[in-house]
Amino acid sequence: MSSKCIEANSDLHRQVTDFCRHIAGSAQITAVSFFDYCPTKAARTKNAAEAVVIIRDFPPRIMSYVKVIDGRSIIIVAVDQWVFERDVDRGFLGEASAGTLVFPYSVINGEPYLRLQEIMLKKRLILELLANLALSFPEMADSLCIKPEYFMYEVMLNRVRAFPPLASCVSNFMRDAQQMKQTNPTLHGYMEALRQLEAEKKVILSNDYVMIPKTLVASSKKPKFRLANISRNAPRNFFTPIFQAFPQLLNLFNQNLEAFPKIQTLSQWKKSLDTARYSVDPQEFIFTPTAKGLVSMADRIGIEDFVKKKLLNGKKGKIKRENLGGFLNDVFLIRADSGGGEKRVLVKRFKDWTGFKWFPLNLWVLGTRTFAVLGKARLEREYAISELLRSEGFNVPRILHVNHVEGLVFMEYVEGENLSISIKRIATSETSKAMSKDLEKLNRVGELLARVHSLNVALGDTKPENVIVDLSDNLYLLDFEQASHGGDKSWDVAEFLYFSGHYLPPLHSNAKAEAIANAFINGYLKGGGNVNVVRKAGTSKYTRVFSFFTAPAVLLTMATICRKTEKQG
Q1: Which positions ≥6 away from 21 have C-beta within 8 Å?
Q2: For helices 167-180 and 149-162, what crossing angle results, to 10°?
Q3: DSSP, residue by residue, 207-241
Q4: Which of 51, 34, 49 is CA-nearest to residue 106?
């Protein structure tokens, strides 16, 4: 809960209390907190300390004072109780008056009151951070596993982002907090706040992890939610610098008194501020589940380190990297052999689509659909949809590890042939019997896609190459970086069919185009697919996109079948 970073100085506290009574006059003092986080006694004598006095019916509402005690500057913020409680409850002043409650502070007066306000403040800040995560990771937010330490560190860093001179204080706290671990009383406040939020059904606690409820994730996708989230940060960015500037500049001046004459440029002065180096990255405490266990979002394991650690188990062995190409992504097949048999893993590197890579793709589908462009967003979709489908019983490659920092996804390699091979065989087959086995696969793919759509998920990239038939004749779905909840299902149908038509020769292929379309559509409807989704796929909105590389006769045949599809009885 509240904490004391140094032993209480009774004389100092008594003098602070006397001055607070002078400020309050006849008004009642509700509580007084004292903030003095200094790692060493020598530094403490130079730093300004801060006291916050909460006064009932304080006419000025909020005022700042400076009191020099034993040669040390004490900043005293006097705030009306009503204003203080609004600051705690809704960030009325951007936590400018209540912000010290998120740091280690000592209590001079009114401990029960300050303890209650601390928990209320931390409950609100936790919910705001969860909302930020839901906005930042809309597809995978409800699968994140979060350690309580995340909230403690992220709240402090948010205050640094609003006012950088707080950096030194936060850096010092982080160094000490790592040593205190679970005995850290500042963390205890977040633990109590989380327990209360769980009782209110606003968070989920599971095996020492915090998880974001699906209701919050769903709400975060509404435009009004995003606007409200932005407006919440505005007071913090405005008021924090105003109320924190004076004590922090006093600290800076006191600690750099001898150095100031030597600082002659703005860049040098800025460099003097940037002395703090954070020892903790809050992202270390956010985890994503994989087939091999939880992975921190701060994890930076590279390809070679992963292979040595996970595939070779630390042993020496042969490593081969095969570049599988990809116009928009880097895809590698990694082979590792330490003498006990070859192990393979597929690695996908997600980079931002910019410049010449993005322009032709955007031009190609103009007016029909939009693509996720940023590597971070595409990695998130790849991970989230893959895990969703796997949990629903679909065959997808298992995700073994994720490096969010460098945009790497390590996944299981599925041996088999992609479905384009089957379509190419159909294109060269001379009899219906020769095509029957491959057409049956298309029927199964249609049924599989309908099951995906029943989850209100559109895959976004349904080229036949993204379906693998393994050695046991099982169908595996691949490539979910453009998948999304509530996406365009007709695009999925259109892309699969018209890309399939791309492999058919331009002349005398109408019958085969018809066979392919019927096999796939019959499977889709058998799997519960919506007939209107199929009919829409036959409209010009979709056919014009694929007219560049699919023969007109083939395209027309398939589109006509789509538009004339009837609901199965």
Answers
A1: 29
A2: 170
A3: TTEEE--HHHHHHHTSHHHHHHHHHHHHHHHHHHH
A4: 34
Q: Compute the distance between CA of residue 484 and CA of residue 279 in angstroms, rounded to an integer.
A: 36
User: Which among 396, 522, 528 has a CA at the least distance from the CA of 453?
Assistant: 528
Is residue 557 classed exposed, middle or buried when 0-12, 13-18 and 19+ CB atoms within 10 A define those classes? buried
Span 454-486, pLDDT tens digits: 999 999 999 999 999 999 999 999 999 989 888
Helix (H) or strand (E) holding 531: helix 531-537
Question: Which CATH fold would you assign to the domain 299-412?
Answer: Phosphorylase Kinase; domain 1 (3.30.200)
Q: How many CA atoms lie within 13 A of 329 on its CB side?
A: 23
Question: How far is the C-alpha of 437 from the C-alpha of 323, rounded, in Å?
Answer: 32
Spatial separation of the C-alpha atoms in residues 212 and 208, rounded to whole Å:
13
Cα four-point dihedral sign 34, 35, 40, 44: negative
pLDDT higher for 129 or 225? Answer: 129
Angle made by CA atoms 16, 66, 15, in degrees to the nearest 5:
15
The residue extents of the domains of the chain are 10-273, 299-412, 417-563
Average pLDDT over residues 31-40: 74
Mean pLDDT of the chain: 83
Q: Residue 271: what pLDDT?
A: 46
Chain segment 178-230, per-residue pLDDT in tens = 666 555 778 899 999 999 999 999 999 999 999 999 888 888 777 665 555 55
454 contacts: CB under 8 Å, gap ≥ 6: 527, 528
Could you identify the residue written with the tokens 């027309």? 556
Report the residue count for the chain. Answer: 569
Prediction pTM value: 0.81
**Cα torsion 460, 462, 465, 471: sign:** positive
Q: What is the pLDDT of residues 327-371, one digit of tens each?
A: 567 899 999 988 878 899 999 998 876 544 444 445 445 455 566
Kindly state the tokens that stand for 106: 């000592």
The hierarchical CATH code for the domain 10-273 is 3.30.460.10
> Do the Cβ atoms of 437 and 429 come closer than 8 Å?
no
**What is the residue whose two structure tokens read 């086995």?**
437
To the nearest 10°, the Cα dihedral for 542, 547, 549, 550?
80
Judge whether 10-273 and 417-563 match in fold.
no
Q: Say whether domain 417-563 belongs to CATH 3.40.50.300.
A: no
* CA 43 – CA 39 distance, rounded (Å): 7
**77 contacts 240 by C-beta, under 8 angstroms:** no
